[in-house]
Amino acid sequence: MRSAITHTLIHELFDARVASAPGQAFLYTPEATLTLADLDAMVTQLAQELRADGVQPGDRVLTVAENCPEHVALILACSRVGAWSCGVNARMSRGEISGFNAKADPRVVYFTSGVSDAARQHAHDAGARSSVLPGLQRSAARPQAVAEQGELAARVAAIIFTSGTTGAPKGVLVSHAGILQFARVSAQSRELGPQDRSYAYLPMTHIFGLGTVLMASLYAGAGLVMRSKFDPADLFDALAHHSLSNLQGPPAMFSRLLGWLDQQGIAQPLAPALRYVYTGAAALDMRLKQAIEQRFGHPLHHGYGLSEYAGALCVGRLGERRDDTSAGYLVEGGELRIVNSQGQDLPSGEKGEIWMRGVGLMPGYFRDAPATAQVMRPGGWYASGDLGCQAADGALFVVGRLKEMIIRSGFNVYPGEVEVVLAAFPGVQRAAVVGRSESDGNEEIVAFVETADQMPLDMHGLQAHIAENLAPYKRPARVICVESFPMTLSGKVLKRQLLSDLVQTTPCAVLP
Fold it and tell me: Is residue 426 assigned to a domain?
């Protein structure tokens, strides 16, 4: 691991890497291998284009993107001119893109049309023109856009839009200091170095892809095998033949990888350089963890993070094997509390809301003071809305969302606890538990399950399994089989959509 590097702005980290090793290969795409100098030339061209279009410090540059070198160059070019990069995934609908455009009030909008049919269509809809880089198109500059001023303009590097799983998406202001701190912590937590390569399919419009993958690799001088879309066959080819040493993604990605191995009849993939496996961005169940560790031959590291804290607040220790689904330990620069409904600290082992503060904490939500005030607490603490507890050794366990907690017969029911039990039953691939209000003010517990290979479940066996492992007030009233869960692009289950679709579904069991 190289010595610590101190920079103020994210492009300064990149500039230092270019100065020290311009010929070092950094991005490996199916078409070409780009050195740091190659990428630097792209950044310089884009910075000139942004300035020519009137982009100034505090402006937003919206990018409708899928992963590609041009998107990386645009993120860094924005930093060079003092603008804020605002990435949105090109696979979103026209209406969603329009909504993010209105929220961001951008000076200009870019589209990664060279790698994305979806981005190309959005560019066509917007009447976009060519950019200085062939893989990009851009809109006409908007003179009516209002640049942010003062200290905030210089402090912010990007806007990351939340997934909207518990409400309308919000624009999280991500600071240069926060993302640089996270880059260092992420790189050091896995001893990342120039000899390493990571698979970069995770969208860099999301904090996972932007921080854990891109910025951590820049910090460490590591390389990225970059892909615009997820393809299990391509990923396993990279593991076998392209020296891939780091594999990271949400649990949904690993489920797909395991399914692909089963379809191909492969017991263990060929991965001679692999040394680090990590999952985050969503809940992890024990059976999936065990399957991943068995098939890949390495401990599955886990972490807890969110856009509002520029990435991960907790990360598992390198090489540590745990027989639980802990989300790891508090990282340097962060503070963590578990509190009750009155904001009072709870002892180890007791469940409460996760509060945090530290270097990575957001300055707030973009132009949304009420939403910011709703989550901030005295002393600069951010109330996450996530429920968790800390073990005596400091390991964090996340059990669900405060808004998703179910009140049944006067008892608190945490969906995560019920989901773990259901997912442990043979034939259940994944489970999602929600509460549905009843006329008497109580809540009915409803479980949705994905079955392995869409096979019928042994419902009598499931009923016995539930009775053995859950107290009566925690037991689902209904279990509903679905072909697949609605998911965000970052791998989170859209429970609100499951609940809204409830009236159109038929339970595969009504349990006494």
Answer: yes
Q: How far apart are CA 157 and CA 153, in angstroms?
A: 9
Residue 503 belongs to domain spanning: 406-510
At 5 the three-state DSSP class reads coil
CA distance 74 to 304: 28
Q: Tokens 């017969």 belong to which residue?
A: 409
Identify the CATH number of the domain in which residue 383 sits.
Answer: 3.40.50.12780
Quick one: tokens of 42?
Answer: 């792209």
Which band of pLDDT confidence, cut at 50, 70 and 90, is reported for residue 510? low
Kindly give the pairing relationship between strand 352-358 and strand 381-390.
antiparallel
- How many folded domains does the chain comprise? 3
User: Which pair of tokens denotes residue 151?
Assistant: 């200290």
* Both tokens assigned to 430: 């994944």
Question: How wide is the angle at C-alpha 217 spanned by C-alphas 213 and 222, nearest 5°?
Answer: 130
In three-state secondary structure terms, 287 is helix
Tokens at 339, concatenated: 């509190």
In a domain, 181, yes or no: no
SS3 assignment, position 498:
helix
CA separation for the pair 485, 132 (Å, rounded)? 41
478: CATH:
3.30.300.30
Q: What is the pLDDT of residue 441?
A: 64
Nearest Cα neighbor of 274 from 300, 251, 250, 312 is 300
**Do residues 383 and 476 share a domain?**
no
Residue 448 lies in a domain: yes
37 alpha carbon, distance to own chain's centre? 29
Contacts of 409 (CB under 8 A, 6+ apart): 442, 473
What pLDDT, on a 0 to 100 scale, did the predictor assign at position 59? 98
